[in-house]
Every structure is written in structure tokens, then in C-alpha cells.
Amino acid sequence: MNRRKKIKFWHGIRFRMTAGLLFLAMLSGILLYAAATEMTRKNMEQQVVSDLQLLLENTKVYARQTLMLNNQNNDEEGFLNCASEIIEELRQTSRHRIALFSLDGTGLLSLGYEDSYEKDAVFDEISSKDSFANALSGQASYSLFITRDGRYEVWFAMPLFVEGKQIGIVSYQIDYSDSYQQYSRIVRMVLNITLVILLLITCAILLFLTGILRPVQRLSRISSRVAAQIREEKISTDHLIGPSLTRRKDEIGQLARDYNLMLQTVESQFTRISEDRDNILQLLNSRQEFYNNVTHELKTPLTTIKGYAQLLEADHMQDEELFRTGLSHIQHESTRLHQMVLQLLEMSHREIHTRMVPVDAAAVLTQVAASMSLKARRYHNEIRVEGLSELVILGNEERLRELFINLIDNAIKYGDLGKPIVAQIETEASFAVIRIINEGPGIAPESLPHIFEPFFREDKERSRELGSAGLGLSLCKKIAEEHSGTITAKSIPGKETVFLLHFPLYKEESDS
Q1: How far is CA 324 from each of CA 310, 316, 319, 338, 493, rounded to the nearest angstrom?
Q2: pTM, whole model, 2 decimals?
């Protein structure tokens, strides 16, 4: 039990959100520290560049003034002669460490922070810097260094030009420690304040999440109990969530209401499943009945054929009447048996006709009506096609032809003699509508729901005489469904029977 609670804690939403918030707070602090450090560095560089630019201009001005006051030429010789005066003048304007060099890099004078002249070792230290090498090539540059004792120093070397002529090199060593420490204190203060704010925000969010997650945890416990009942194939609405949660106006309340609805739905589904067991058994019985019908329908013509064949064999063609009668029955039953087998094969192969193309259903129906007019005249009937002359649907022409033949053939066989058979073609909204109408005895109301079932025949004796096995309308329904359509029947006993077909109209895809 403790292990289960531990696993739930480590994998729970509350723990993961807490860990996620702390991670975000730490990541924000790290990013803020990096940004603040980078900002300090850039600010220091901007201040250094600005100060050095001013220092560069001032150095040129004071050096030129010193040469003029000492009546020296603006060349390297004048610079060498007035080196001490120049360094003293520059010292008055800045309190930095200053060193003067000749054009070839030879150290002349170096004045430290304490106004004392330094030894030659200082020149070696200055000449080792990259900034000094750049100054020898005629470019002013600087280098930034943080010393071991934490001082922030700038080493600046510049070629000294007077009236466009380079006369020497001046080097400065500037201490920016105070400015650097000031910037660092500001950065630390901003960082500390931001971390405190992030910590407070994190705590506030955690408290807020606790209030939100508490009802979620309650829902989780209830759902666990319900899931255990479902595994045991038991369900009860005793675990419905109370009004304390369902009355809430937020997502938790909506979740609680949806949970109650789900629980009630599951209970009703369990009840329906138990009720459907009988229906499933009934379907299994229907399936068995279907196979029994198939066996019976196949057995009947085979028995007839076998019986007459044995009689003809025993008679040795002595009785002509028996021969003609037997041969007629054998031909009739074999034809009916062949047709029945073909229809069964059509019904068993569901994927036999899958290629659908635009087909003019009106033209196909008109052709079928024309081809079957001869059979209709034998029954003193006529077939009339009314309505649209063009009706394009997405389908398979051969399957549609078979559908129309079955319906018109049924209308001829089961209609009254001398009555017309009408095929109406029209559209309703986005559907093609086809009606096959015949006048005759019609179909009894109690038989209408079953006429599309395999082997169903309202009058079995008459159907057998007409060569019907009760599969034609089942095949018609299958073909209609293949075309995403429907087939229904309406009948007024003693007046008329209407078979109604609906198919989606074909719409050409226009280029956009």
C-alpha cells in the first residue's frame, strides 16, 4: 500500500507540476544571471570605450601643447626631448599609470599610480600586451583583464600623432575596479530580487494548484472504484459525484457533471448489453435458419432433378409424355438451381464490385426497360419510363443494370396482367430518386419489413413456380448499399407496389 502511494506521489500531477515550476524558476534564475552578467560586461565595455576615446583626444592635445611650450618640433626627436614634460602634463589630467615609448617600442618613461617613476621591468610587461603590438602598427587598442586580487584593469596603448605625424607611443593602465564592483552589486541586487519574486510566485501557484487538484484527486479515487466494478462486470450509480462539485461553474464542475453523465450512460449500456444477448442469440438462430433455408432450397431442385432422372432411366423413353414432363422439370429446376447459386455467390462476395465511375442511371434504366419489354408483352404489360432523361451517379453500370432487372422482373411477375409498369426518374435535393411501380395484389403490411431478407417469400408456392428463391430483393439491397444508396418498399394491397431507390448525385470536382 505504501509503495502504491509512493508511486502515485512520484507520478502524480501535483509532484510533476511542482518539479516543473521549480525547474522553471531555477532555469529563469540561471538565464537572468547570464543576461545580467552579459549586460554588465557590455556596459563596462561601453564605458571603457567612451573614456578611452576622450583620453585619446586629450593626450593628443596636451602632447602638442607641451611641444609648443618647449619650442620643440612635432617629430620623434621633439617627443624624446620633452618626454618627461609630456608625462608630467598627462599625469595632471589623469591619475592612471602612464608609460611613453619611442616609435621602435623602446621604453622611455613610466609613471605609476603613486607619482613615482618605475623601472624597466614595467616596459616588458606593457610590451607583452596585444594592445601594445597594435599601437606599434599604428592602431589604438585596449585589453581587459581581471587580476588575481579581483581588480578590473584596462591596458590601453595608442600611437601619438601630432599634425598627422606619428611621434611616439603612449600606454595607459586604468583601474576600473570601483565601476565593475558597482555594476556587480547592481546585478546581484536585481538577481536576488528577481529570485525572491519567482519563489513567491512559485509558492502562490502551488497553493492555487493544490486547491484545483484536490477535487481532481477526489474524482480519481471515485473513478478507480468504478473501474474496479467495471472489471467485475458490475456497475452502480452509487458512486455519483455529489453537488459540492457538480454545482461548480468552472471546468471541475463540468468534469464532475460529465462524469455523472458518463456513469449513467455506462450503466444504461450495461443494461442494454445484457438485453442484447438475447438479440445476439436470435441473430445466431437467424444465421442457422439461413443455412437451413439454403440447404432446403438446394435440396428441393436436386431432389426433383434426381427423381425425374431415375424415372426416365427406368422408363427407357417408352412414355413420351413422361419424357417431355421430366425433361421440362429437369430444365426448370436446373435453371432455378443455377440462378440461386449465382445469387448466393453475388451475396457472398462483398468486394466483387468496387470500381465506381460516373454512370448515367437514367440511360441504364431506359436500356433495361427496353430489353425487358418483350417479357412484359408476354404478360400483356408495358414498361413506361418517365421523368429525367439523364441522371448521373457514382456507381458500377453492370451492378445497376442487375438491380434494375431484378426490380422490373419482380414487377412483371407479381403484377396484374395488362397493367403498366412505370419507372419514374427524378431528383430530390442532392439525391437521385428512382421509383419502380406496378399494380397488383401487393405485399401484406406484416411482410414488408422482411422482404429484403434472404429466402423470404410471401407466397412460397407461387414463388417456386415462378423460379424465385427469395434472394432477388436481398441482392437489390446489397447493390443499393454498394452505391451508398437505400432501397425501400411501399405497398397498398390490391392496388400498387412501389420500390423506391435513393442514390447520391454525382458532383464533378471543379478546379479552384
Answers
A1: 14, 13, 9, 21, 38
A2: 0.39
